[in-house]
Amino acid sequence: MASTSKVALITGGAAGIGYAVAAMLATKGWLVNIVDIDQEKGVVAASIGATFYKADVRDYHSLRNAFDDTMKRHSRLDFVFANAGITDPRNFYEAQTSTLPPEPSLALLDINLKGAVTCTYLAQYYFRLCKQGSQLADFDPTLVIMSSIAGLEVYSPIPLYTAAKHGLVAFARAIATPFKESDGIRVSCICPGPVFTEKRKPSDADRLDMVPMETVCNVVSELISPGGGFGRCLRVLSTGISDV
Ligand SMILES: NC(=O)c1ccc[n+]([C@@H]2O[C@H](COP(=O)([O-])OP(=O)(O)OC[C@H]3O[C@@H](n4cnc5c(N)ncnc54)[C@H](O)[C@@H]3O)[C@@H](O)[C@H]2O)c1
Fold this sequence. Notes:
Layout: E1 7-11, H1 16-27, E2 31-36, H2 39-47, E3 51-54, H3 60-74, E4 79-82, H4 107-133, E5 142-146, H5 159-183, E6 186-192, H6 213-224, E7 233-237, E8 240-243
Parallel strand pairs: 1-2, 1-4, 2-3, 4-5, 5-6, 6-7
Antiparallel strand pairs: 7-8
Residues 11-12, 14-18, 36-38, 41, 56-58, 83-86, 111-112, 115, 146, 148, 192, 194-195, 197, 199 line the site of nicotinamide-adenine-dinucleotide (NAD).
């Protein structure tokens, strides 16, 4: 028997934007499932009544297990937020000529790009399963992919981040129509400017270009609402929100 409450699964939901969206949905009565690599931060999930799954979005089986267990417990899945991502402090430009170049770390691409793609692949399967197995009148499967303003503009100091986030914009646009036509899944992506999270320096709070967390939550809330549309790519800046 499917749960009467809507069910969300959020990657990178133990902190920052993912956590803020998780807390917002929990307040609205959603059953929230947080998938995160950080077990310690995961305990915060309990404080908002969410279920925590320790999983690395690079590890297919642990991610699939989180989706699978969520479906087994609730027999429905309504919203997936492919949000997990990192910034990489390493300098891509610093190769020394005195030694052979060591293998570069491409973890950022594995987490930010491949992790979101894998999450999307699983979301498609479990949304489809949910559609086939239940007759939910309010079933409106929605996937939101977290890109960044770096997915729309070029940031030369952070080329891997820029590449991953551009890739996600293109990926979300590519799948939006097939997902909608085959299974009614609404896919959109969001591209925020800098958002104030606990990782930011306190002095950043005074920066005029910081996007309030509430703004990002409101954008996600709009996308999962019945009129939220699909195939949208939203630039979310402190100066305003616009479809790109
Ligand atoms: N904060 C910003 O200014 C900003 C702006 C635009 C886009 N974004 C994007 O928003 C997303 C969230 O960013 P944030 O600022 O909230 O970051 P954050 O570091 O505060 O939170 C990210 C969460 O993802 C988790 N995570 C990291 N690697 C993971 C992995 N391999 N598997 C599972 N979970 C993992 C972390 O443990 C953490 O809980 C990222 O994709 C980021 O690129 C952030």
